[in-house]
Amino acid sequence: xxxxxxxxxxxxxxxxxxxxxxxxxxxxxxxxxxxxxxxxxxxxxxxxxxxxxxxxxxxxxxxxxxxxxxxxxxxxxxxxxxxxxxxxxxxxxxxxxxxxxxxxxxxxxxxxxxxxxxxxxxxxxxxxxxxxxxxxxxxxxxxxxxxxxxxxxxxxxxxxxxxxxxxxxxxxxxxxxxxxxxxxxxxxxxxxxxxxxxxxxxxxxxxxxxxxxxxxxxxxxxxxxxxxxxxxxxxxxxxxxxxxxxxxxxxxxxxxxxxxxxxxxxxxxxxxxxxxxxxxxxxxxxxxxxxxxxxxxxxxxxxxxxxxxxxxxxxxxxxxxxxxxxxxxxxxxxxxxxxxxxxxxxxxxxxxxxxxxxxxxxxxx
Length: 365
Known about the structure:
By secondary structure, the protein is of the alpha+beta class. The chain has two domains: 4-64 and 139-210 and 302-362, FAD/NAD(P)-binding domain (3-Layer(bba) Sandwich), CATH 3.50.50; 84-133 and 211-297, 2-Layer Sandwich (D-Amino Acid Oxidase, Chain A, domain 2), CATH 3.30.9. Helix content is 27%, strand content 27%. It has nine helices and 22 strands. Strands 5, 6, 7, 14, 15, 16, 17, 18, 19 and 22 form a ten-stranded mixed beta sheet that branches. The chain has a six-stranded mixed beta sheet with strand order 9-2-1-13-21-20, with helices on both faces. α1 packs parallel to α5 (140-153) and α2 (54-68) packs across α8 (327-343). The longest helix has 17 residues, at 327-343. The radius of gyration is 21 Å and the shape is elongated. The mean pLDDT is 94.
């Protein structure tokens, strides 16, 4: 028997498990052949402090120190300089102003300055721009492997190919049925990503709507004659396309957010083609070849904030879900919060921030 069973072996489950395993016997159940297979392994891999709503921006700020000094996970910083630039056409200027509301460490740019940073951008399509120079790439592979190594070093166990087929509570214990057998623990953490709503239904928990949304991406050859390595990531203010250098190539995403059923996602050819067309409208380079493409699922609660805390209906059922596209960069603070709440320790987060995360905010009034 275990003290805590975590359903889901993505960054949420692994990081929470690593923190919890220091003082509890923890099992992670992962349905795939490897950990970090779905959203965690298909991330844009960038830390943007001003990304998301007010709740997420607060979480980003709290995660930043760990990402820079990831004690116990890596000997070196998980971050390297990149920068993130938002560009706006005439029609998108209001959206740019909205983005800048409450933003920190962001500098406004004109079209010439923006095109100097990314020379393939069309100046005639830029009516305004802004850059967060402190946005940084995240070494997601090193982060995932570091948390997993820490988890195992503390006695944590991972069981692969173990999808949850049944979830019932009897005599103060959760019984979890999988093809690999039955497992028991007093506390279950739902870190199932795109499958979090289904896991909640199995447990008889509050019916929180967690919606998986597909996000596609493609790798293009770098434009000839340019050293792209120092270019910042750039995104349109309407979030209809973004691009960043990646391993000597250009990663381009149509920034799609199409609701889909939980699945092993793949890029939709039409969605990708439309996104690449929007990319071509903003740049001077033609798209002549796609090296590869992929898609992942970003899962959102109705208010786009993560869901973290004990369920108000299902005893000792803990939600760690709805991280959207922010799961990697918020994992340090949310994993610590999950461990604090599960073990009954005091948390450093404010009451307002806790209230913005707790599952009971969806309880019918």
